Amino acid sequence: MDDTIAAISTAQGVGAISIIRVSGTDAIKIVNKIFSNKKFLNAPSHTIHYGYIMDGDERIDEVLVTIMRAPKTFTKEDIVEINAHGGIMTTDKILELLLVNGCRLAEPGEFTKRAFLNGRIDLTEAEGVMDLINSKTDISRKIALNQVGGKVSSMISDLRDELAGIIANIEVNIDYPEYEDIEEMTIEKINSNLSELESKIDKILKESKNGEILTNGIKTAIVGKPNVGKSSLLNRLIGEDKAIVTDIQGTTRDSIEATLRIDNLILNLIDTAGIRKTEDVVESIGVDKSLKLIDEADLILFVVNYNEKLSHDDLVILDKLKDKNYITIVNKTDLDKKIDDDKLSNVVYVSALNDDNIDEIGNKIKKLFNLEKIETTDLTYLTSARSGAILRKVLDSVKAVRKGIEENYPIDMVEIDLKDIWNLLGEIIGESYDEELLDQLFSRFCVGK
To answer: Which of 163, 174, 214, 428 lies 20 to 30 Å (CA to CA) from residue 232?
Structure first.
């Protein structure tokens, strides 16, 4: 990190203002080479200066330049931000001059990566920055802001502190058994402490499922046999004709995806091929994909016809849904009723053709996922797949240690296992990491962040 990096931080395109960010040891010196205001070099930190970006004697743009001296910056390095007039040519020209005069083009997420490596933020806070940029609802913004603000880091650090206390007491009891003023760490006491720790971790994981749903959306599959109106329902829900609708069975042969926002919930909708026995090779591939999506989805919208009795295909699908979150959509209420709906549960009656009662589907989904309860709770969740996977590994390890204690494992072996768990928790916040992980994580960022 000895070099100085530069990148455009605002979205590419035409706009009122664009920002070019520079960070590194020589940031101020390099910008000073192309800035007309020569008082800038010795200017105090966190001040803004007016002038022109120059290419030799040629004025490139009239700008405001912000100087922020280390260590009180995002990267903890010297940072300069050039506020230029928006426009592709002008912005690119300023970036080109910076590169010619000694900067290197920043890699995706490199500013945030430097903030992490320099101790300004930890990994969960870095992931929070990305979630904040990508947030699509107000509640996902609040969750991300809690991560950026360090609430998730504090939650994990508290678990580590609790575990460190157990380890320290074990070590003292092993190394200094003659001390009378220390707490005696019996096997029963260790097991009790680990039981409390296990409960806390389990609670965090369960609650963080809400965080994943609110941040990443609910993977929602619309399933049913052919010609029940799945594509018509998708079109009504999203307010546009995305899926082709005909009276011919098997029209939808592959999944069609769309996104729907219901208050603070994002539904990642997938309209699937109709599920039935078929000899058509192409259609059967679509049917297999539909059945697989039932297993993968967080929510199923199961569509049946109001004007038909439940068929064998309907009952086969219904049997696959017994352990899933699902809502039964009885469609075509504009026709005469023939359905035997006593076998159905969690039902919404609609007419996709006439747009009748479609809003009730959203109300049912909010109730199913306890949205009102979630919105009033403390929104401190683990939202990344990376941190969730590590914490699940921690939970399994704690359970394994407790089992080992019950099987009379030597206390020094228990201590080693607890230290491994402590290190695993450290991986969540980046106390320990490998370069490949960092490269993968920060490559998801835009170049100027």
So the answer is: 214
Q: Is the pTM of this model over 0.70?
A: no
The kind and range of the H/E element at 305 are strand 299-305
Topology of domain 151-214+384-430 in CATH is: Four Helix Bundle (Hemerythrin (Met), subunit A) (1.20.120)
- Whose tokens are 């919930």? That residue is 265
| Burial class of residue 322 in the structure, from the number of CB atoms within 10 Å of its CB (0-12 exposed, 13-18 middle, 19+ buried) | exposed
Q: Where are the alpha helices (DSSP H) in 19-87?
A: 27-34
CA dist 203 and 24 (Å) reads 42
Torsion angle of the four alpha carbons 256, 213, 127, 442, in this order, in degrees rounded to the nearest 10: -20
CATH 1.20.120.430 in the chain, residue ranges:
151-214+384-430
Residue pair 347/330 in contact by the 8 Å Cβ criterion: yes
Q: Which amino acid does the sequence have at 386?
A: R
Between CA 254 and CA 282 the distance in angstroms is 9
Measuring CA to CA, how many Å separate 129 from each of 107, 132, 134, 154, 331? 16, 5, 9, 16, 42
**Which of the 8 DSSP states describes residue 35?**
B
Task: Give Cβ neighbours of residue 249 (< 8 Å, ≥ 6 apart).
Answer: 226, 227, 274, 276
pLDDT band, very low/low/confident/very high, at 37 (cuts 50, 70, 90) = very high
Query: What pLDDT does 171 receive?
Result: 79
What homologous superfamily is domain 5-117 in, according to CATH?
Answer: Probable tRNA modification gtpase trme; domain 1 (3.30.1360.120)
Angle in degrees, CA 205, 211, 216, rounded to 5: 125
Class of domain 217-375: alpha beta
Q: What is the DSSP string of 73-135?
A: SSSSS-EEEEEEE--HHHHHHHHHHHHHTT-EEPPTTHHHHHHHHTTSS-HHHHHHHHHHHH-
In 3-state terms, what secondary structure has residue 433? Answer: coil
All CATH 3.30.1360.120 domain ranges of the chain, comma separated, are: 5-117
